[in-house]
Automatic annotation (TrEMBL):
<dbReference type="Pfam" id="PF01565">
    <property type="entry name" value="FAD_binding_4"/>
</dbReference>
<protein>
    <recommendedName>
        <fullName>UDP-N-acetylenolpyruvoylglucosamine reductase</fullName>
        <ecNumber>1.3.1.98</ecNumber>
    </recommendedName>
</protein>
<comment type="function">
    <text>Cell wall formation.</text>
</comment>
<keyword id="KW-0133">Cell shape</keyword>
<dbReference type="GO" id="GO:0009252">
    <property type="term" value="P:peptidoglycan biosynthetic process"/>
</dbReference>
<dbReference type="InterPro" id="IPR036318">
    <property type="entry name" value="FAD-bd_PCMH-like_sf"/>
</dbReference>
<keyword id="KW-0274">FAD</keyword>
<dbReference type="GO" id="GO:0005829">
    <property type="term" value="C:cytosol"/>
</dbReference>
<dbReference type="InterPro" id="IPR036635">
    <property type="entry name" value="MurB_C_sf"/>
</dbReference>
<keyword id="KW-0131">Cell cycle</keyword>
<dbReference type="InterPro" id="IPR006094">
    <property type="entry name" value="Oxid_FAD_bind_N"/>
</dbReference>
<keyword id="KW-0961">Cell wall biogenesis/degradation</keyword>
<dbReference type="InterPro" id="IPR011601">
    <property type="entry name" value="MurB_C"/>
</dbReference>
<comment type="pathway">
    <text>Cell wall biogenesis; peptidoglycan biosynthesis.</text>
</comment>
<keyword id="KW-0963">Cytoplasm</keyword>
<keyword id="KW-0573">Peptidoglycan synthesis</keyword>
<dbReference type="InterPro" id="IPR016166">
    <property type="entry name" value="FAD-bd_PCMH"/>
</dbReference>
């Protein structure tokens, strides 16, 4: 049932482009984010082809309706008021293929699964990504990295849809990849697939590195609770987690959101937190660290959506 205020016209157009099973109305976005936070989307659409992605973007432009790309919601907080208009999730685009030392992965595939594909083909270069929970599209969006490696080290090119719904092929250098950033949000690109160039290696050596990194991640990170991963970028000359720990903030809780006792750089949804509680705790941490050490922590996690109606 489409709630009052939502357009049957837009709904009908969306199911013409894709299918009824790929269009959800008034959908709770907390069901689609790693933090388990977020209000409702007017329309959540999950296209199955590149052409469908293009047509949905063009529809949003023609109808002058708000459009938001959700990704897989791993490094994202959606506010409690939800998101108006069309929200697109590319989790159906998950193909991964290998040709020699090159891997092509669609944007909805998990970067973890791409690193595992590399392992099975004895290709080295993506070991660092074996613990990153995000999608390929999200990994390009923020030039994801861990343990000394990052996407820009292995990315060759990408296919994207631009703001007008046109398909473009870009090189890695076109994306201005830098520490946890790219020009993808500024340009309004929607990543469809990425091509990675790797090096032939030895299975046992690649697996040993991945096993070691997996152990480090599982032993140090609070994976038992929903979270957005590392909340803050590394400030020059410091470590965010150390600053938070030295500010005696571990265990600090606002509502159901808590600064992790296991890793101070993480904020976890410990007990049915709202997005407002989670965001308020982020701000509290930023203010406290700034007050104690004169360092303003910059968010790595993205916050989108609307505040709840009061």
């Amino acid at each position: 049932m489409i709630r009052v205020g939502l357009s049957h016209h837009i709904y009908n157009k969306l199911i013409e482009i894709t299918s009824e099973s790929n269009v959800m109305v008034d959908e709770e976005l907390k069901n689609h984010t790693y933090t388990r936070l977020g209000g409702k989307a007017d329309f959540l659409v999950t296209p199955e082809t590149y052409h469908e992605v293009q047509e949905i973007v063009r529809l949003a432009n023609e109808e002058k309706i708000a459009f938001t790309l959700l990704g897989n919601g791993s490094n994202l907080i959606v506010k409690d008021g939800g998101i108006r208009g069309i929200v697109m999730n590319l989790h159906r685009l998950t193909d991964i293929s290998t040709n020699g030392s090159t891997i092509v992965a669609q944007s909805g595939a998990r970067i973890i699964d791409v690193s595992r594909e590399a392992l099975t083909k004895t290709l080295s270069g993506l070991e660092f990504a074996c613990g990153i929970p995000g999608s390929v599209g999200g990994a390009l969006y923020m030039n994801a990295g861990a343990y000394g490696g990052e996407i820009k080290d292995v990315l060759v090119s990408t296919k994207v849809v631009d703001k007008d719904g046109n398909l473009q092929v870009l090189t890695a250098s076109d994306l201005d990849l830098a520490y946890r950033t790219s020009n993808i949000p500024e340009k309004g690109y929607i990543v469809l697939e990425a091509t990675f160039s790797l090096e032939k290696g030895k299975y046992a050596e690649i697996k040993a590195i991945m096993d070691d990194l997996t152990y480090k991640r599982e032993s140090k990170q609070p994976l038992e609770y929903p979270s957005c991963g590392s909340v803050f970028k590394r400030p020059p000359g410091y470590f965010a987690g150390k600053l938070i720990q030295d500010s005696e903030l571990q265990g600090k809780q606002i509502g159901g959101a808590q600064v992790s006792l296991k890793h101070a750089g993480f904020i976890v949804n410990k007990d049915h937190a709202t997005a407002t509680e989670y965001i308020n705790l982020i701000r509290y941490v930023q203010d406290t660290v700034n007050e104690k050490f004169g360092v303003r922590l910059e968010r790595e996690v993205k916050i989108i959506g609307e505040d709840p109606v009061r």
